[in-house]
Amino acid sequence: MGSSDMLRQALERAAVPGALSDGTPVRMLAHGAAAAIARQSGAGLRHVEIAALEQGLVPERYLRNFTTLDCAGQARLLGTRVALVGLGGLGGHILDGLARMGVGHIRVADNDVFEPTNLNRQLLATEAELGVSKADAAARRVAQVNPAVELDVHRGRLEGADFARFYAGADVAIDALGGVAFRPAAEAGAAAAGVPLIAASVAGWTAMVATALPGERGLAGMFFPHGQSAATPAEDVLGCQPPALLVAAGLVLSEAVRLALGQPPRLGGPHGRLAVVDLSTVSLDRLSLRG
Fold it and tell me: Residue 285: is it exposed, middle or buried by C-beta count within 10 angstroms (0-12/13-18/19+)?
């Protein structure tokens, strides 16, 4: 009997009755069952979860992802590669959401450490983490949230052509950088790597998110329409309110899941649209990024 057959049989033995949030009965793996099978079989946990979903078994941790997702969609997320630059206010929440959704491969980059001004908004920032590497905190967080996620951590600073190398091979690229100085390089790098880029920005109570498919104009084009900024961007002077940051992170996550599932983006794409949410007036606008 081959290892794949043994894995299928182990999963069938571990199957138990479950129910979705609407009461629909499903077969599921109780929490911890997939990890036990992974240890016994020597297979990776992500691989075991994918195998379970292919057999119509839902790992308990993903039950509330259904019926928005199905087994095929959840398995596809577990096979998706996302490359995320920035692990601060935006990046920490985005990383946490990707892990909870079950995105299977995540590559992250940040060379910074936590400081007291991060405590107002950054999910990974705590009193105990002050002075600690954001990348190290991210690795610990993902291991605690979803150990099936395979995390690749880059602790160096990305500049220029580094972005293209970092984004290469990803299905989705995300720019969660603080400030705007590196946005043109990130956008150019994703285009060179042939990867769609989702970028977000927060200025006070306002959140902005746009998706740039390779070769299209994205958020950096708005800040730097002629290759340089004519004035200091609002993002750099208005601070960052946690509610606006959470809205931006949610928009990024929803776009990332759509792209991972092979769906067209709701922002960017052929229409070149930028979502602007202003919480001071509770308004949502979609603006053109085209010149």
Answer: exposed
Give me the percent of the chain exceeding a pLDDT of 70: 91
Q: What are the DSSP E strand ranges found in the chain?
A: 15-19, 25-29, 57-59, 81-85, 105-109, 150-154, 172-175, 197-203, 206-212, 273-278, 283-288
> What pLDDT band is residue 230 in, cutting at 50, 70 and 90?
very low
User: Beta partners for 28?
Assistant: 16, 58
Is residue 289 within 8 A of residue 272, CB to CB? The reply is: yes
Residues 74 and 66: their CA atoms lie apart, in Å, by 9
| Half-sphere exposure of residue 23: CA atoms within 13 angstroms, side-chain side | 0
Which of these, 136, 127, 130, 91, lies nearest to 114 by C-alpha position?
A: 130
Rounded CA separation 202/1 (Å): 55
Task: Give the pairing type, strands 273-278 and 206-212.
Answer: antiparallel
Three-state secondary structure string covering 27-60: EEECCCHHHHHHHHHCCCHHHHHHHHHHCCEEEH
User: 22-31, 48-57, 78-87, 216-225: lowest mean pLDDT where?
Assistant: 216-225
Q: CB within 8 A of 84, min separation 6: which ones?
A: 91, 94, 95, 98, 106, 107, 108, 109, 173, 174, 176
163-to-86, 93, 259 alpha-carbon distances in Å: 12, 21, 20
**Phi, psi for residue 278 in degrees, rounded to 5:** -110, 105
Entry field: residues in the chain: 291
- pTM here is 0.93
| Residue 249 CB coordination number (10 Å) | 25
SS3 143: helix
Dist. CA 85–CA 111, nearest whole Å:
10
Cα separation of 272 and 222, whole Å? 11
- Other Cβ atoms closer than 10 A to 165: 13
pLDDT digits (tens, 9 = 90+) for 112-122: 999 999 999 99
